[in-house]
Amino acid sequence: MQKATSRPISPIFYLAIALLTLFATAMLFLSRATAAPSLSPVAGLMHLKAMERVAMPYEEAMANSKPTLVEFYADWCSSCQAMATTVEALRDRYGDDINFVMLDIDDPARSAQVQTYGVTGVPHFVTLDANQVIADSTVGRVPAQVLSQTFDRLLEDRA
After folding, report:
1. Residues 1-42: pLDDT tens digits?
2. What DSSP element (H or E) covers 137?
3. Residue 77 is among the residues annotated as catalytic for this protein
4. Where are the domains of the chain?
5. DSSP labels for 43-105?
6. Which SS3 state, helix, strand or coil, does residue 142 take?
7. Is there a cis peptide before residue 57, judged by omega within 30 degrees of 0?
8. Contact at 8 Å (CB) between 154 and 98?
9. N- to C-terminal Cα separation, the chain
10. CATH fold group of domain 41-158
11. Is 66 in the active site?
């Protein structure tokens, strides 16, 4: 019968285990720290509806001489719900100088605007200059910085 011999475990093995443990622990904590809070579907819809209540009516925005952001949205659109906080922050920053309008694409009363602005997806953002001429049009999740740059350019042109 042969006698089993055990070999000593190399220090490199222990070092590798320590590094893997350290890496796994760091990933666990870093992923928790950097995860952006997300709204539940109900909270997102509630935020979207709150934004709609304070938005300027389309007809009123077309009658004044300020630039306008027209947001076409739908209640069921998760991207629209996610953009609500971005649009709210922009409204807080630019609300004195720019009209913020929200139009529900599922509202039959808004079909003329949907057709006029060629809305094929949501969220769809149409930026109008002070003369209500289209200055920019984007579809989908748009970074706040992109919309801010458009607003700044429109306000510069106006001054």
Report:
1. 566 666 777 888 888 788 778 777 766 666 544 334 556 778
2. strand 134-139
3. yes
4. 41-158
5. HHHHHHHHHHHHSPPHHHHHHSSS-EEEEEE-TT-HHHHHHHHHHHHHHHHHTTTSEEEEEET
6. coil
7. no
8. yes
9. 97
10. Glutaredoxin (3.40.30)
11. no
CB 117 within 8 A of CB 127: no
Sorted by sequence, the CB contacts under 8 Å of residue 147 that are 6+ apart come out as: 69, 86, 90, 125, 127
Give the active site residue among 80, 101, 119, 135.
Answer: 80
* Predicted confidence (pLDDT) per residue in 48-102, tens digit: 999 999 999 999 999 999 999 999 999 999 999 999 999 999 999 999 999 999 9
Do 158 and 67 meet the contact criterion of CB atoms below 8 Å apart?
Answer: yes
Neighbours of 44 (CB within 10 A): 21
CB 82 within 8 A of CB 74: no
Structure tokens at 43: 């909270």
Query: Catalytic one among 61, 77, 122, 126?
Result: 77
Q: Which residues contact 61 (CB under 8 A, 6 or more apart)?
A: 68, 70, 99, 101
